[in-house]
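Blackboard transcription, Thursday session:
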Amino acid sequence: MYLNQFLFLSAFLFATGVYGVLARRNGVLVLMSIELILTAVNINLVAFSAFHNNIAGQVFALFVIAVAAAEVGVGLAIVLLIYRNKQSIDLTDVDVMKG
Amino acid sequence: MLAAAVAASTSAVAPHFKAPILDYHALAPEIVLTGVLGVLLLVDLVVGERERWATSTIAGIGILAALIPVFTLGVRSHPGSMFGGAYVVDNFSLVLKALFLVTGYVVVLMSSNYIEEGDYYEGEFYFLLVSSLLGMVVMASARDLITIFLALELLSIPGYLMAGWRKRDVKSNEAALKYYLLGVLATAVMLYGMSLVYGYTGTTLLTGIGAKVGGSLTGHPILSFSIFLVLAGFAFKVSAVPFHQWAPDTYEGAPTPVTAFLSVASKTGGMVAILELVYVGFLNRHDVWAPLFWALAALTMTVGNLIALRQTNIVRMLAYSSVAQAGYMLVPFAVAGDNVKARGTAFEATVVYLLIYAAMNLGAFTVVITVARKTRSGEISSYGGLFEYAPGLTVLMTVFLFSLAGVPPLAGAWAKIFVFRAVLDSGTTAAVVLGVIAAVNSVIALFYYAGVAREMWMRPVPDEDRTPISVPPALAGALAATVVAVLAVGVYPNMLVRFGEISSLVK
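(Written on the board underneath:)
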């Protein structure tokens, strides 16, 4: 196993996630795309951690996993709130304010 | 290979584990805030609906209690450093901790009537406000990528919730959603950059990164790219153009005290992280960040000011004005890499700007909240003839607005003078061009600030309703604190110069 295999995988996931955030209009799918980016980060961190034989990267990855869970909880709450008030989670509908 | 590496690293670490030595005095502000969080949750559980106001009092007293150890630490001569240098309590972090705590206290004063009369959840609101504050206090001490990330999330996540506090209002929902999505995307992009920085340097400590980045890794393209990703993530947080789109909508839709909190405390939190990253971690790569900050600063000032010119809503105007103010704060970064002297003055300029900006912007938002108690409107036209029925508020608002515009002898003028001093110390053509852009922008900004002043002093009252505005004691306290700060610094700026000097991260 070479380090660059992990880096290519993570770069691919990162690019997919960024595309998903920019192109998807469904609130839940945007949240999932953000999770893809965070997965890319975790793969990077753990691969570099093994490469450097240094534990800090794995600790960082554990923190990212825990915080990402909290973050998605908040995100789903906000999407739910919008669904209750608008009966839709299409992000293009959320445009009361402009300019 | 991975399994072997994990086994090797665990066997290397596990037998040598020693509990880290904690400096409890240095950690006291954080411990007090954490205790306040616990007390707030319990009190909210126990007291009835009528006594919920107690939560705001507890939050306020708790924040003031956390200020006490900050002062005792300021008297103590040696800095505290924990976790192998990942968490440092030095003069820089103490000055900014004090700023965050005072800002937090003023925001509690601003919110107590608003949240109580608006019939919103009270206990949870102050719980989230204090947790966000805890994140900022941690950010001021963070000298490690993991700690910076944790502090950033701790200060942001409660902010997303507070922005959507008016649950049934579609505007508030939209504010929370836009803030959340762009904030989380920025964090994710920043994390990807951090993971690459860790990969190149093999350490998460900023001092370690600083040593590696300036040494063997000079001129590495992917490292430059990852530095760019990390700084772009924080550019979202401080709402620098082109990463500012969330700011006006979030500021308009969120409850106004939350807007004040986000535009002052949250922005300062992001700026503190940039200070740490640039002056400790990436100092030797100014070939990457100096042009980046040059472009960000020039765009942020110009775009923020030009869009602010045509706003008709006061909160939205202040939102774009705070975007523009972030631009002035970024100017020193653009010139910091030019020579050693400019590095020192640039650092000072950013810290002094943050201190002054907090006072004047909080003051302006407090007046907006007070006036909206009567007019129930955020339109600038609703300020017509304010002088006829609320002369005190009119004078205060004029002071805050002209301070934001940078009119001497108010505090805001000194903030700009410090920025220009850093520009002159650098003296390169690029720096002087940026200085000229900043100067032109200050003149543009005067138009929209003076526009509001003209509305208040010269226009007729729109609906002939001249009943005076009642100012509750909490809001009066917030107004008094901010106006005293703005005037005192304006007359006697040396006290802030001192803060700028002792806080220096630059050796």
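Lecturer's comment: The CA atoms of residues 67 and 73 of chain A lie 10 Å apart.
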